[in-house]
């Protein structure tokens, strides 16, 4: 797919355009389904929404983590860890504290269970999972794209794996961790996920 308008301009580090362009190329890989440039743009949009609502988080590391969190995505185990390793290599010149925080946030997206006091983790987790609250048409597109991403997995194994992921998410007291997301995204997300689980069953 083509780059969403102005996505390149949303890179949060002045300079390092080469790193940005490598990430854009990774998200633009035609072998991807859901975890593509559109997903990156949507996560950044949701972070903007959370910030506009007064949700506290550190914009630079969280934005960088959004850019890197699916930098590696091939439908295989360990993608988050490999994405975090990319952070540690690509951002090595930007100071150990920033690198450590961005890498930590990327690793957190493996299970989306930040501590309640982890403002950065809560914001990124919510922005990443906001697709679950999408309107019906967008949610249907998301499901098609996710299945395409796992085309190498049999239908039975995909249903089993997908149901396990959704059940694990629903086991959380709340799908979302910030006040804005719980108020505005939680009801639709729970409805979408519960309906999908029923179809999978």
In short:
With 201 residues, this protein is mainly alpha-helical.
Summed up, the helix count is: 10
What is the name of the CATH architecture?
Orthogonal Bundle
Looking at how many chains there are and whether they match, the oligomeric state comes to: single chain
Counting DSSP E segments of at least 2 residues, the number of strands comes to 0
Any idea what the radius of gyration is?
Answer: 16 Å
Describe the model:
There is one protein chain. The protein is an all-alpha fold. It has a single domain, classed as Hypothetical protein af1432, CATH 1.10.3210. Helices cover 62% and strands 0% of the residues. Helix 2 (37-52) packs antiparallel against helix 3 (59-68), helix 4 packs antiparallel against helix 5 (96-108) and helix 8 (155-170) runs antiparallel to helix 10 (186-200). The chain is globular.
Descriptive labels:
Hypothetical protein af1432, globular, mainly alpha
Ordered list of secondary-structure elements with their pairings:
Elements: H1 17-27, H2 37-52, H3 59-68, H4 79-90, H5 96-108, H6 119-129, H7 136-149, H8 155-170, H9 179-184, H10 186-200
Helix pairs in contact: 2-3, 2-6, 3-5, 3-6, 4-5, 8-10
């Amino acid at each position: 797919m083509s780059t969403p308008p102005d996505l390149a301009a949303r890179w949060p580090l002045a300079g390092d355009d080469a790193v940005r362009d490598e990430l854009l190329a990774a998200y633009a890989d035609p072998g991807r389904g859901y975890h593509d440039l559109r997903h990156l743009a949507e996560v950044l949009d949701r972070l903007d929404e959370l910030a506009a609502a007064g949700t506290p988080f550190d914009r630079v590391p969280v934005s960088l983590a959004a850019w890197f969190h699916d930098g590696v995505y091939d439908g295989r185990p360990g993608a988050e860890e490999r994405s975090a390793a990319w952070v540690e290599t690509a951002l090595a010149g930007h100071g150990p504290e920033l690198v450590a925080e961005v890498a930590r946030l990327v690793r957190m997206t493996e299970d989306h269970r930040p501590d309640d006091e982890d403002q950065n983790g809560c914001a990124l987790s919510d922005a990443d999972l906001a697709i679950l609250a999408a309107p019906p048409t967008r949610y249907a597109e998301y499901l098609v794209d996710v299945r395409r991403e796992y085309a190498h997995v049999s239908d039975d194994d995909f249903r089993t794996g997908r149901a396990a992921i959704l059940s694990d998410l629903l086991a959380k007291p709340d799908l979302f961790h910030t006040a804005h997301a719980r108020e505005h995204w939680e009801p639709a997300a729970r409805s979408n996920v519960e309906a999908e689980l029923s179809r999978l069953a």
